Amino acid sequence: MPDEPLDPIIRKRLILADLGIDNSTLRAWMQRGDFPLPLVLNPGQKREIIGWPTSVYRQWKAARPQRMAKPVTEHAYEARRAKTAARRRKVSRPQV
Questions:
Q1: 30-41: per-residue pLDDT in tens?
Q2: What is the pTM of this model?
Q3: How far is the C-alpha of 75 from the C-alpha of 36, rounded, in Å?
């Protein structure tokens, strides 16, 4: 047995939660080649259990381009503040 450390397997549900996506998005990414293919932990079974080595997932995530948030324009900021204020006024009105 080699002296290299074990690479834990990260399960699909944890990846979905970490990325904030659903199963269909992950499948589409895998079909397009945008996400690494999983390891099947119980081959030949009716319901396969899949997972990815943690190192593979971390490498993919580190290589993924980070999206920069768009700056909010003054107009959009004021519109959101007005909408929030109107909603608060509506909620705070006493019910007769």
A1: 999 999 999 998
A2: 0.61
A3: 42
Angstrom CA distances, 29 to 17, 38, 49, stand at 16, 12, 18
* Residue written as token pair 């397009």: 32
Quick one: which of 31, 67, 30 has its CA closest to 52? 30
Tell me how far CA of residue 80 lies from CA of 31, 63, 77, 88, in angstroms: 39, 34, 5, 12
For the chain, where are the alpha helices, taking DSSP H only?
12-19, 23-32, 54-63, 74-92
Q: Describe the strand order of the beta sheet including 50-53 as a list of residue ranges.
A: 9-11, 50-53, 39-40
Q: For residues 41 and 35, what is the distance between their CA atoms, to the nearest angstrom?
A: 18
Distance between CA 50 and CA 11 in Å, rounded? 6
